[in-house]
Design brief:
This protein is mainly β. Helices cover 0% and strands 52% of the residues. The chain is globular and about 40 Å long.
Length: 115
Amino acid sequence: QVQVVESGGGLVQPGGSLRLSCAASATIFSIYTMSWYRQAPENQRELVATISTYGTTNYADSVKGRFTISRDNAKNTLYLQMNSLKPEDTAVYLCNAAYGSLNFWGQGTQVTVSS
């Protein structure tokens, strides 16, 4: 069982920045593929970004060039740097840890982009 806990959400104006963090309890954090998802009210859960065990990253088209996913295996922590935020980025952001058929989710952190 892996526990993941997100933090760093909040209210930000359009054009602003936030950095989300996800702390994982995994004994061997480095073996997990880590991802950020988001879910807005009445919308399906959307994959935002993924980082592999080797550091390979992938992004949704809607966030390319604005968001950066990274991981610090020594600290068992995943990050999402979000720049140039838009109102449509408003959602609950969730951290996911995956290994084989195993998937672990956090409770999420709210990001609201509004003036």
